[in-house]
Amino acid sequence: MSESRPGATRYQRTSGGLVGAMIVTVLFVVAFVGLRGFVRDNESTPVHKVDYQTWVKAGRSDGKLAVYVPSPVPDGWRATSASYETGTQPAWHLGMLTDDRKYVGVEESRDSTQDLVDEHVDPDATRGKDVQIDGVTWQTWRDAGGDYAVVRSLDAPDGTPESVLVVGSAKESQVRDLAGSLED
After folding, report:
1. Which of 12-26, 32-46, 98-112 is the most confident on average?
2. How many CA atoms lie within 13 A of 179 on its CB side?
3. Taking the domains of the chain in order of start, what are their residue ranges?
């Protein structure tokens, strides 16, 4: 037989009590998440623009690549990254955001068109039909993630073969229009 100690109380454990405790806990979690959402700062991170013209001048004075840039930059678009690497494997990069915050990038190097596609689109990208952009034939590529690219090969200022790729998550027409606006 069990002894009861003076002052000790026993409580009945019931499924109703358990359900009640769970309801109180869930209400507390919902209130906490709601309060955090209410007082949290949900402002988007501002997009920083870069001045890519310095990189263009450096690349063009190097003379190893044509260094293609859009002329003009579409209204509302912002350059967000730019770089030029010199040396035996020169490379030009210009990254931009469209007015609806979709990415479009220009990549240029002495690599083959296939190497540029593998590096900047996807090694498993699917080739589409060639397109004519301002009288020039460009290959089209698409990856499983929805990125679309156009790429072509040409001769660099020093006569060496080079390739230019325009790729992005923007609409196909925006990628093609940007490719058509490139000037060296």
Report:
1. 98-112
2. 31
3. 11-43, 53-183
pLDDT at 156 over 90: no
Contact between residue 80 and residue 49 where contact means Cβ atoms under 8 Å apart = yes
Where in 57-184 does DSSP place strands (E)?
69-70, 78-85, 91-97, 103-109, 126-127, 131-133, 136-142, 148-155, 161-168, 182-183
Query: Is the separation of the CB atoms in 177 and 74 below 8 Å?
Result: yes
Report helix, strand or coil for 16. helix
What is the b/e burial string over 51-61, where b = at least 16 CB atoms within 10 angstroms of the residue's CB? ebeebbeebbe
Handedness of CA 103, 104, 108, 111 (dihedral sign): positive
Task: Spell out the long-range contacts of 111-117 with Cβ–Cβ below 8 A and sequence spacing 24 or more.
Answer: 111/163, 112/153, 112/163, 113/139, 113/151, 113/152, 113/153, 113/163, 113/165, 115/163, 116/151, 116/163, 116/165, 117/141, 117/149, 117/151, 117/165
Q: With 70 as the cut, is the pLDDT of residue 168 above it?
A: yes
Which homologous superfamily does the CATH classification assign to the domain defined by 53-183? MucB/RseB, C-terminal domain (3.30.200.100)
Looking at residue 125, its pLDDT comes to: 93
